[in-house]
Write a structure and sequence with these properties.
The structure holds 2 protein chains of 2 kinds. By secondary structure, chain A is an all-alpha fold. Chain A contains 13 helices and 2 strands; from the N terminus they run ααααααββααααααα. Chain A has a single domain, classed as ABC transporter involved in vitamin B12 uptake, BtuC, CATH 1.10.3470. Helices cover about 70% and strands about 0% of the residues of chain A. A two-stranded antiparallel ribbon of chain A has the order 1-2. In chain A, strand 1 and strand 2 form a beta hairpin. Chain B has a single domain, classed as Orthogonal Bundle (ABC transporter involved in vitamin B12 uptake, BtuC), CATH 1.10.3470. Chain B is about 70% helix and about 0% strand. Classes of the chains: A mainly alpha, B mainly alpha. Chain B: It is a multi-pass membrane protein.
Chain lengths: ~325, ~350
Amino acid sequence: MSVTTAEKPAVRTTKVLPSPVTGQEIVLVGVIAILWVALWVSTPAFMTAGSIQPLLVATAPVALVGVGMTIVIITGGIDVSVGAAIMVCSVLTAKLLVDAEVNLGVAVIVSVAAGGLLGLVNGVLIAYGRVHAIIITFGTANLFLFLGLQIFGSGTVNGIPGTLAFFGRGQDGRTFGVPHAFLITLLITAAAWWYLRHTAGGRHFFAIGGDAQAARLAGVRVQRRVLLAYVLTGLLVGLASCFVIAQGTSTLDQSVGSGKELAVIAAVVIGGTSIMGGRGSVLGTLLGALLVQSVASGVTQLGWSSQLSDLFVGIFIIVAVGADLLRARARRSR
Amino acid sequence: MTATAERVRQRPDVARILLTQRIPLLAVLIVLVVVTFFINDAGGYLTAPYDFDYMSAALINAVPLAMLGLAELLVILSGRGGIDLSVGAIVSLSGMVFGFAYGEWAWPLWLAILATAGFGALCGAVNGFLVSYIGFPALIATLATFYAYKSIAIVINNQQPISTPPIQDLFSLSKSVELPLFGQYIPDVPLGIFTFLLPTVVAVWLLLARTAYGRRLYAIGTNDVAARWSGLPVRDTRFKAYVYAGLISGLVAVVTVAQFASARPDAGVSGSGMALPAITIAVLGGVAITGGIGRVAGVVLATLLIVWLNAGILLAFVGNEGGQYQLLALGTVLVFAALLNGLTNRRYGGTS
């Protein structure tokens, strides 16, 4: 598996790197293409800018958090507290926008910093407390929810100004018809792809996920790397929270972020990242998030109950991971 | 290192027992929580009296929590990353099945309960098949079925709950009753404790501690490969753990429907759902997430601790603040339980 590639100085000998795109990504591109064509044929309105643009905007937060989650899962961990962390960051930022009337830059910086801080809490507990990531993040999810609800006070945050419209659905949120939120997500995904594939630091994440003990003996500072993975996730959660506020109405209610952690994990595993660690790709995660959102959009456009899209998400997870299992079995028997 | 270990072994002090054995620790914590709230109550700091009647009435919340905690116990024990995220969705979906069978088609109650439990077991069998026979990681398989079951439960009756008269009459199942013989000396106890919780606790305990299947489950959870080379039916054993978890979730569905007097399509997944609290209870009860370690008594005591702690917190704050501080308490307890596990693993070489 990729452990062998990670232990060698991967930067200089590009031959040992896995191919730039994995089979899973090609399959996902194919599935998304077929889905889009099918939707186009059944409802011609689907292939218009008015339908694709909201789809891309809605994909952005899940895909962005998914980039961080992919790195965390590559190290063999998991973070189920991102939904609650989104809630904390978005309510904090929304309150600032309403009460202090801060500008776009300050709002983004505060949100990202808050997210990074929450990620730091997770990272310190997991890297230095040496306990299972899923347990710790279940715990911190409850703590973050408490924090978020305390900031909410009672009820909702009302009258959020349009400061964040740069990331929103409207005309201000697009350049040449491309939504800024999606463009930023694309750029960050590309940067993360390069970082994970072409730098020693990036390869270390794979080494840790493959075998943490071997990575440590090979000189990887495992605890710092693990800490970094959770902090990165937190920073991206902060930015994604700005997207979430921008996409919503002028009112933010307490259900914000609820269930997002499972949506993000679903996008990551559909994208072909192994939950056991050591293998994965942020490109796949972006495609996974796009597929999930396309299905949700398609189900509504066909006039079916919107709840039905969850059934398809479940089926896609089974099919995607099942295909991956079969490929792994084929690799072993070769 | 060995010298320290030697000294520790020779001096079995209280601290060591509390750190390495989860059950005494939980017992001490329960006493602490109850005494703290009694003192607060005597000082008049609570909005309503915290007494034995109140504690007994709060036990109604322990029924679904402890049962699902036991379901997670079985699944997590089976090892290889065993976990079941779909229990809440199974509760929703089996609850709808129960609603149809008893509320719409007017089946006799025993048959409807049997069918619901059977349907839950079928949902669990899908999980078990994916995990044990196909080889899916449990987290992924149950995440997928969580989405699928949740979606079907909501779509099946067009997002509408079923609350026909027979279902509404079931509410009597969740009322408190006076026990026969010595009932007048102790507070009334919620009926669900005797009809559902105690039978489940006894059944799971018998299964784990008194049957060959239970021994096999601990064996495969401790070391999958060793169990296979010893000729144990590893796949079959792990498969059944998920089936039993589904069966228990089906029974919880009946309890939940009775409690709400309505079969709600989102019963097990609304808010943070039922799966996360159940996993929390299991971990708090000393179940090792790596498999092979965990006891029924730990899960039961952990449930009592959380239920009585939550009940007290509700009285200590006015309005919806209490619900928020329950989250704080649950998160803090879970993080400390996990850190404690990590500490004892390094200091004393692990719990039993």
